[in-house]
Write the structure tokens for this entry.
Amino acid sequence: MSTLLEVSGVSVSFDGFRAISNLSFRIAKTELRAVIGPNGAGKTTFMDIVTGKTRADEGRISWGDEGTSLRGLSEARIARMGIGRKFQKPTVFEDQTVQENLLMALKNKRGVFGVLFYRPSDRDLDRVAEWAGEIGLADHLLRKSGELSHGQKQWLEIGMLLAQDPRLLLIDEPAAGMTPQEREKTTDILVKAARTRAVVVVEHDMDFVRRLNCKVTVLHEGSVLAEGSLDHVTANQAVVDVYLGR
Ligand SMILES: Nc1ncnc2c1ncn2[C@@H]1O[C@H](COP(=O)(O)OP(=O)(O)OP(=O)(O)O)[C@@H](O)[C@H]1O
Ligand SMILES: [Mg+2]
């Protein structure tokens, strides 16, 4: 497997509490990975460390073919290296249309000059229409984003992240608050996005994780407890015990 991200021996403590403890794992260049684990297992903190929001106390975080260290880099720098992150709450611009939101994401990718001199070309509009199709919003391009359902807003935000063409996309609990139909559509979007990049999804909903049909990493007390297919990890007694709180 061709590694994109390698975390090895990473630990983080908050006031003496070890939230991440000697954490090690790898993500391949094109891979969909689900991260599960009980509340407080360190799933969100793991994403905070990779994106530079939280600093690791020890360990290595290497990125790309050169194994560039991400430790100590700013959040902005890490984002520019191709790591996109989606938080739980959608942060789309509600007064702007779906099309405008996606154009804005495209514009961001072009940097400061792009923002100053930006006029959408026919080509940009075509690309935006194509992305809208991929996130199930082709028929909603001219609607104000504030009018979309919660699930549609989540898709729009995923589309805005994809418009920036990240090599790694980190997504925390996308299924929360979605209807069953929206969840199904979301798995389709993520599976497709992971064909050309790495996508790491933290999720509690096991039906959702099952539909992702990918390798699963189980975190517990800030370390990897088990890894493999969902069937493999859920057959693991240590995983069962952790979920039952034993
Ligand atoms: N900034 C912080 N300061 C202090 N403690 C923190 C901080 N961030 C996380 N923690 C603690 O670290 C532990 C791991 O938290 P984290 O949010 O990563 O868990 P999680 O696996 O995402 O849980 P959940 O499934 O509930 O979202 C928790 O005990 C949490 O209280
Ligand atoms: Mg969390």
The mean pLDDT is 92.
